[in-house]
């Protein structure tokens, strides 16, 4: 696997005539970290990204990938060594999923067997079934599936650096959260250097090891870990952009994996009701969770709904609680619970098996306990 590299902007500016789009931008992204560029429309986020792979040329300053200035390299070779993911995905409609993923390795002259092996590996890595998806065309995929294929294509040649321009902006909020969690999962394994553009401060806080808040005219307003920006905004502009609910946003710095999950009493449809009642009698949580043969949640039975005799009936179970992954932020978990009007979410593993529950009270306690300048936790 290719090692990640440092990325550095040194006094970079880009102007069109007398109008600056990026103005004296200086920041360094250490190897293996995610840096999020965030700010209002017209602040130069996407232009800054395009300066890295020379889709736009700087007016002045230097951009270094490792110790090499991007302007000293052939632009085509430079781009082939950088992963690039955009909101519209940009998959070639006449090529299958496998052929889309293989575009850059083919341009680099990889041997056919190596391309096939890498393609299968990456389709699985981004959470798709290679057998089901490799021969499909982009029009046959959902928006979330197309975005996963776009990430797989960007990773195909194992680039040390990835650029992502609002990659999840065109999908619905539920799919967006899943894709965010999937990218964080991949980053745990691959440790790429990633520059990620978004206009959404919540997404920036969730995804970034470092956050660069930019203002109109391409001026860097603040750069640092998200916890620092939330606790100590550098200006009124940053404070307004982050929002008045900075304390609540601190919940985005912690994940479901950071709290101790509560145990939950489970049973299967058809189990003896009297035995289930006995198990629940010793539990502080007054609900029984029905699960299937693979321990995946079906729904809840209130203690009062469980009959004295007979068997447990899945038809009575109420499937209201949201399913939470270990990478789900506590802010997203709380939002889902409040939206469903429930007091607990069910934590599941990557196969959907029940691991425990997290309650609203636990999240409230985590918010009270979180130090205002805490470093962001990574699941």
Short description:
With 379 residues, the protein is an alpha/beta fold. The chain has helices spanning 45-52, 75-80, 97-101, 103-107, 112-125, 130-133, 143-155, 173-190, 201-207, 226-231, 236-242, 246-249, 273-281, 330-340, 360-369; strands spanning 7-16, 19-29, 34-38, 60-65, 68-69, 82-86, 161-165, 193-198, 210-215, 219-224, 266-267, 287-291, 297-302, 323-324, 344-348, 354-359. Strands 6-7-8-3-9-10 form a six-stranded mixed β-sheet, with helices on both faces. Strands 2-1-4-5 form a four-stranded antiparallel β-sheet, covered by helices on one side.
Main attributes?
single chain; 379 residues; alpha/beta; Rossmann fold; CBS-domain; six-stranded mixed β-sheet; four-stranded antiparallel β-sheet; 16 strands; 34% helix; disordered C terminus
SSE inventory with pairings:
Elements: E1 7-16, E2 19-29, E3 34-38, H1 45-52, E4 60-65, E5 68-69, H2 75-80, E6 82-86, H3 97-101, H4 103-107, H5 112-125, H6 130-133, H7 143-155, E7 161-165, H8 173-190, E8 193-198, H9 201-207, E9 210-215, E10 219-224, H10 226-231, H11 236-242, H12 246-249, E11 266-267, H13 273-281, E12 287-291, E13 297-302, E14 323-324, H14 330-340, E15 344-348, E16 354-359, H15 360-369
Parallel strand pairs: 3-8, 3-9, 6-7, 7-8, 11-12, 14-15
Antiparallel strand pairs: 1-2, 1-4, 4-5, 9-10, 12-13, 15-16
Helix pairs in contact: 5-7
């Amino acid at each position: 696997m290719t090692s990640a590299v440092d990325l550095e902007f040194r006094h970079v500016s880009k102007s069109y005539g007398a109008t600056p789009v990026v103005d004296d931008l200086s920041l360094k992204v250490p190897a293996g970290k995610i840096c999020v560029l965030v700010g209002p429309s017209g602040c130069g986020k996407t232009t800054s990204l395009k300066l890295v792979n020379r889709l736009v040329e700087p007016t002045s300053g230097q951009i270094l990938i490792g110790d090499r200035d991007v302007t000293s390299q052939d632009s085509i070779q430079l781009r082939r060594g950088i992963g690039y993911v955009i909101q519209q995905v940009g998959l070639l409609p006449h090529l299958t999923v496998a052929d889309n993923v293989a575009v850059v390795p083919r341009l680099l002259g990889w041997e056919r067997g190596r391309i096939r092996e890498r393609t299968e590996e990456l389709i699985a890595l981004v959470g798709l079934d290679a057998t089901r998806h490799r021969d499909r065309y982009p029009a046959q995929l959902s928006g979330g599936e197309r975005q996963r294929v776009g990430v797989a294509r960007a990773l195909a040649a194992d680039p040390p650096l990835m650029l992502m321009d609002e990659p999840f902006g065109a999908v619905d909020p539920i799919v967006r959260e899943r894709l965010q969690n999937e990218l964080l999962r991949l980053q745990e394994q691959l440790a790429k250097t990633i520059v990620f553009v978004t206009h959404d401060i919540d997404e920036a806080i969730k995804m970034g090891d470092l956050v660069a808040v930019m203002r109109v005219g391409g001026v860097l307003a603040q750069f640092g870990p998200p916890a620092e920006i939330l606790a100590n905004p550098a200006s009124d502009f940053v404070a307004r952009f982050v929002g008045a609910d900075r304390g609540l946003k601190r919940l985005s710095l912690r994940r479901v994996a950071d709290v101790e999950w509560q145990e939950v009493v489970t049973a299967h449809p058809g189990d003896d009701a009297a035995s289930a009642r006995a198990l629940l009698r010793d539990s502080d949580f007054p609900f029984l969770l029905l699960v299937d043969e693979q321990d995946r949640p079906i729904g809840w039975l209130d203690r009062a709904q469980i009959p004295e005799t007979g068997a447990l009936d899945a038809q009575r179970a109420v499937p209201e609680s949201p399913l939470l992954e270990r990478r789900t932020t506590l802010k997203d978990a709380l939002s889902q619970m409040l939206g469903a009007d429930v007091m607990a979410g069910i934590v599941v593993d990557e196969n959907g098996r029940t691991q425990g529950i997290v309650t609203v009270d636990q999240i409230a306690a985590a918010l009270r306990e979180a130090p205002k300048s805490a470093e962001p936790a990574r699941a």
